[in-house]
Specification:
474 residues, mainly alpha, Growth Hormone, Chain: A, 3 domains, MFS_trans_sf, membrane, transmembrane transporter activity, cell membrane, transmembrane
């Protein structure tokens, strides 16, 4: 089934409705897993220990997802979208099963990496299959359906995580993925038949390996520095210097690679660089708050996992509400002004979180999170579309993938940085007292405010419309 086949509408009742549902279900696996674990952190560490290691549950998942996305994209051109998508669903399901059975924090971190490897195929293949099956005019509606999955999952994820952690078992946060993955794969096998041409590519395995080792080394240094070893120790310096040198080597490799995992020409275009930088900051801000707001609500304010989920749900609720109106705003006032307004709003929300103390109520935290989410919703879409409108059709996929890659990498590095800040205050204890945890997480709020302020500065550097090839999105 391709875009040249019968076009009988886009909705669920159309001929392609079952395929659309399968794509939405597959997307929901990745979308839910991005937020569902946040409200169960204290429950998991109570059973498995390793509170100082829990940021790795987010970082390793996001890093594995980020570095595999470009590889899957090239493999899809060689063997087709369907086998890559089914492989991704299978690996994600395997990782979910192993996570549900984990008996130690180290094992859970390793199994989260397996999940991330699967997620790296599911997320981009959903978008690619939709592009193959639906015409250009139909894709706008299809993207609306897929975007609704992310919006719903961002709200439901923390709530479901809280329910499972408080009333059932945290293990069901992962085990619930098994029936969903099986149903999505079954529907995809039955309803999607490929006939698209395939091309041969050399895959940049060396680039992918160097990126993984370099970024992983820096995250290990950030997360374990001051814990497993001193910041000025030989281990810490070796990881920082070694990770930096590997990433420099990655840059040289990419300049010579036939099909680089991250083409160097993207760094020569101002709008792409600015858009990707903003995307990296967005990933760090969102994951920083979704990781630590529930922990603050539970560990400092003494709420249950469900109420903690409702609190961080305000953040993920503000995003889709603002994003749904972003198109009207940037068509009226332009990409640059919209990004500045959104980042300024996000900064205002972050500043309100600086006023949060151990005596604050959940409503105060929720309001701050909602404002931050609304600001990020106004920034993310306009900056991505601004970059896309400056690219030719043959380059648009690379520009989009670079933006997504930077957001995933920012999420992974952001959690690592915030984890290092918290661990520097909490120490090696698995059950930090509220009077210790509160100032530690306050460091996260400070970091979020600084990143949001940098985002404002980056937004002002967006080129004006006359500098782009296309002044309005397609």
């Amino acid at each position: 089934m391709t875009a040249t086949d019968v076009r009988a509408g886009v909705g669920f009742r159309s001929e392609r409705g079952p395929l659309l549902i399968s794509l939405m279900m597959a997307t929901s696996l990745v979308a839910l897993d991005s937020t569902i674990i946040a409200t169960a952190v204290l429950t998991i560490t109570d059973q498995l220990g390793g509170f100082s290691q829990f940021p790795w549950l987010f970082s390793i998942y996001l890093l594995a997802q980020a570095v595999t996305v470009p590889i899957y994209g090239k493999l899809a051109d060689m063997v087709g979208r369907k086998p890559i998508m089914l492989f991704g669903i299978a690996v994600f399901a395997l990782g979910s099963l192993l996570c549900g059975l984990a008996t130690s924090m180290i094992a859970l971190i390793i199994f989260r990496a397996v999940q991330g490897i699967g997620a790296g195929a599911v997320a981009p293949m959903s978008m690619t299959i939709a592009g193959d099956v639906y015409s250009v005019a139909e894709r706008a509606k299809v993207q609306g359906y897929l975007a609704s999955v992310w919006a719903a999952s961002s709200v439901l994820g923390p709530l479901l995580g809280g329910v499972f952690a408080e009333y059932v078992s945290w293990r069901w946060i992962f085990l619930i993925n098994l029936p969903l993955a099986a149903l999505a794969a079954w529907m995809l096998m039955r309803k999607f038949t490929e006939s698209a041409p395939r091309r041969s590519h050399r895959i940049d395995y060396l680039g992918a390996g160097l990126l993984t080792v370099g970024a992983g080394g820096l995250m290990l240094a950030l997360l374990e520095g001051g814990q497993a070893w001193a910041w000025n120790s030989a281990q810490s310096l070796a990881l920082f210097i070694g990770g930096t040198l590997v990433l420099i080597g990655f840059g040289f490799v990419e300049r010579r690679a036939a099909n680089p995992i991250l083409p160097m020409w993207v760094f020569t275009r101002r709008v792409v660089v600015v858009s990707s930088s903003i995307s990296l900051l967005i990933g760090a801000v969102i994951l920083g708050l979704t990781s630590y707001v529930p922990t603050f609500a539970q560990g400092v304010l003494g709420t249950g996992a469900l109420m903690a989920g409702l609190t961080v749900g305000a953040l993920t609720m503000g995003w889709p509400l603002a994003a749904s109106q972003a198109g009207k705003v940037y068509l009226r006032i332009g990409f640059r002004r919209t990004a500045v307004i959104g980042s300024s709003l996000g900064t205002a929300g972050a500043l309100t979180l600086l006023l949060v103390t151990a005596e604050s109520g959940l409503l105060q935290i929720a309001v701050g999170c909602f404002i931050v989410g609304a600001g990020m919703g106004l920034v993310a879409t306009p900056t991505l579309i601004a970059a896309q409108t400056t690219a030719d059709w043959s380059e648009r996929g690379v520009v989009t993938a670079t933006n997504m890659f930077c957001r995933s990498l920012g999420s992974a590095l952001g959690v690592a940085v915030f984890g290092a800040l918290v661990n520097s205050r909490v120490g090696a204890t698995d059950h930090p007292a509220p009077e210790i945890l509160a100032p530690a997480i306050h460091m996260v709020f400070i970091g979020v405010a600084v990143m949001a302020a940098v985002m404002v500065a980056a937004s002002t550097m967006m080129p004006r419309p006359r500098q782009a090839k296309d002044q309005q999105p397609d």
